[in-house]
Amino acid sequence: MIELEKFDKMYEGKAKILYETSDPNYLIQYFKDDITAGNGEKKDTLAKKGIYNQSICTTIYEYLSECKIDTHLIKSINSREQIVKKLSMFPIEVIIRNHAAGSICRRYNIRKGHKFSTPLLELFYKNDSLNDPLVVDALVTEMNWCDNYELKEIRQIAHIVNHRMIEFWNQYNITLVDAKYEFGLDCNLKIILGDEITPDTQRLWNKEGESLDKDIFREGNDMLKVSSVYEHINALINYQSIGQSHNPDYL
Ligand code: ADP
Description:
Elements: E1 6-12, E2 16-21, E3 26-31, E4 34-37, E5 42-45, H1 49-66, E6 73-76, E7 81-85, E8 88-89, E9 92-99, H2 103-108, E10 115-125, E11 134-135, H3 137-142, H4 148-170, E12 175-181, E13 183-185, E14 191-193, E15 202-205, H5 215-219, H6 223-239
The protein binds adenosine-5'-diphosphate.
The site of adenosine-5'-diphosphate (ADP) has 17 residues, from strand 2 and strand 7.
């Protein structure tokens, strides 16, 4: 691919910025140091978080691509930026839960840690002003957020990604509790995994059941702890050989 020039900002979200490029089919995705929880109600800045997440996300998307899953990642170009395929995003968040944690425990009074007999897939309407509400399939298709065929394929791909990610984290003795995935259509109308997979978008527990993800921020105020978790996950998957899962000092 020819070298791309970075153009204007297309979108700035809570964790990332997307820039247009000299090729209309590609964007530059920049990872910020901002960290938010509860739809932006709790906010802070975590030095180097964007660097850790870019690096973690690149490793995971390269792994998924080796597993023959289509992702938007073309390549990482520096410590905070990636070239990605420009997608027309479906306004839905796909959550797959292997164990119960977070909102599902509150919603149905389910014990935290309950293992689902098969991975549970939920769809949420991506809309900050409505707090990303849970939606049923019939509403997704009724509102044309995607059609029936697309929804069926999104579900299938999400389950495959979940399966591959369970295997990925297993290598490090980490349990994938749940994760959020976002999909979009590329210029050939192919369904592609977009956005990011990082400790912002997944719940990860070590064998003692301790969190190695954004829950440390959601549930506490010790930013050093939060930082050490992101640093630890990055070091684990990028700099340590498989099986050597050392925990951050505080755990
Ligand atoms: P939010 O929008 O929730 O604040 P982010 O800060 O992560 O989240 O912003 C990234 C935005 O970019 C998200 O809205 C996501 O749907 C969108 N996005 C992710 N990947 C792509 C892509 N390849 N093409 C177009 N939009 C994308």
